[in-house]
């Protein structure tokens, strides 16, 4: 008989962070930089652990140029040619430490890791503690957590599969940290407060798609209609992406992403400042002088309402 898990699982929208006694006098006292030492590869990384998603509308070189100035990370999408990579690398040498290529880097270690991950059926994103442990013990340093929370993801609709993101992050972080591994919360952040909640829940890194879409530096066609500007944003498993890169949706599968028009938001720099300012503020409310301390200072309160709806619009 199928099993029903009766524990309540929560999304970002179901909680708020409880304010705590704080001696911090100014948001400028908060340090958002973290240094990581990875369990298996022994590599180190220092930066603000927010990642632009490896979608062709988000993980662009233009995005990376801005994000690296803030020490944020970009997972560059896999549709750039080797020539484009070489040109970017030669012109932006300072950016490279904050970049990940979505395709292989060619080093033997990476190939081996890829092979290991290839042989693990659910590799890609996971949402349960058991899978996190299995992947870390198989050689992975960082596990990406999230099935179905993405803004242009239709997996939950098409397949009925998913896991509320806040609970997924809390459970997976617990499993990963027990083995000295790390996790990325991938998808489902709508506002700076959600990014703060993901860190509070234990995410080491937070990956953003929709929040970084629609900017000058984002990919996707710019559309002008009735005096307004929009940018096209689509899931990497959407019909749009599959047509663009794979010649269409294969017969045996359904698209699991959609296409939307995002109102044009201007330069991404403003959005980044807004996100970082929000998280600094979160840290002062809960008394965390460093981002690293945020999860230790986090108590979530379950809520039935996030914001006052009286003048409600998208914000
Ligand atoms: P967002 O920040 O927009 O809520 O979520 C971004 C994440 O959505 C990406 O990092 C990726 O994991 C996921 N994603 C991107 N495109 C698709 C898609 O077409 N289908 C699904 N299921 N997930 C997608």
From TrEMBL:
Residues 10-84, 122-306 form the IMP dehydrogenase/GMP reductase domain. SUPFAM superfamilies: Inosine monophosphate dehydrogenase (IMPDH) (SSF51412). GO terms for molecular function: GMP reductase activity; metal ion binding. InterPro entries: Aldolase_TIM, GMP_reductase, GMPR, IMP_DH/GMP_Rdtase_CS, IMP_DH_GMPRt. GMP binds at residues 186-188, 209-210, 235-237, 253-257. Pfam families: IMPDH. Its EC number is 1.7.1.7. The active site is at 153 (thioimidate intermediate), 155 (proton donor/acceptor). Gene3D superfamilies: Aldolase class I (3.20.20.70). GO terms for cellular component: GMP reductase complex. NADP(+) binds at residues 26-27, 78, 147-148, 236, 252-253, 281-284. PROSITE patterns: IMP_DH_GMP_RED. The keyword Oxidoreductase applies. Coiled coil: none annotated. GO terms for biological process: purine nucleobase metabolic process; purine nucleotide metabolic process. It catalyses: IMP + NH4(+) + NADP(+) = GMP + NADPH + 2 H(+). The keyword Ion transport does not apply. K(+) binds at residues 148, 150, 153, 156. Keywords: Metal-binding, NADP, Oxidoreductase, Potassium, Purine metabolism. It is an enzyme of class 1 (oxidoreductase). HAMAP family: GMP_reduct_type1 (MF_00596). Catalyzes the irreversible NADPH-dependent deamination of GMP to IMP. It functions in the conversion of nucleobase, nucleoside and nucleotide derivatives of G to A nucleotides, and in maintaining the intracellular balance of A and G nucleotides. Homotetramer. Belongs to the IMPDH/GMPR family. GuaC type 1 subfamily. This is GMP reductase. It comes from Balaenoptera musculus.
């Amino acid at each position: 008989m199928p099993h029903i898990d009766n524990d309540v699982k929560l999304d970002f929208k179901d909680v708020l962070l409880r304010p705590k006694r704080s001696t911090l006098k100014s948001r400028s006292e908060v340090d958002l930089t973290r240094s990581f030492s990875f369990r298996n590869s022994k590599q180190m990384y220092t930066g603000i652990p927010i990642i632009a998603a490896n979608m062709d509308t988000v993980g662009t070189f233009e995005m990376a140029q801005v994000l690296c100035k803030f020490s944020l990370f970009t997972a560059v999408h896999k549709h750039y040619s080797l020539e484009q990579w070489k040109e970017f690398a030669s012109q932006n040498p300072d950016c490279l430490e904050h970049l990940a290529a979505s395709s292989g880097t060619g080093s033997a270690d990476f190939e081996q890791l890829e092979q290991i991950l290839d042989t693990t059926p659910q590799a890609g994103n996971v949402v349960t503690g058991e899978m996190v442990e299995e992947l870390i013990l198989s050689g992975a340093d960082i596990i990406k957590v999230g099935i179905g929370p993405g803004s242009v993801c239709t997996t939950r609709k098409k397949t009925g599969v998913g896991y509320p993101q806040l609970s997924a992050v809390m459970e997976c972080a617990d499993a990963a940290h027990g083995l000295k591994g790390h996790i990325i919360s991938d998808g489902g952040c709508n506002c700076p407060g959600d990014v703060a909640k993901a860190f509070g829940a234990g995410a080491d890194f937070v990956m953003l798609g929709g929040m970084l879409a629609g900017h000058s530096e984002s990919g996707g066609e710019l559309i002008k209609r009735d005096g307004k500007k929009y940018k096209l944003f689509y899931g990497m498993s959407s019909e749009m992406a599959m047509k663009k890169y794979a010649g269409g949706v294969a017969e045996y599968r359904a698209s699991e992403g959609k296409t939307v028009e995002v109102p044009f938001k201007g330069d991404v720099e403003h959005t980044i400042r807004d996100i970082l300012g929000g998280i600094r503020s979160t840290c002062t409310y809960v008394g965390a002088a460093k981002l690293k301390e945020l999860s230790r200072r986090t108590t979530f309160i379950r809520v039935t309402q996030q914001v006052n709806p009286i003048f409600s619009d998208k914000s």
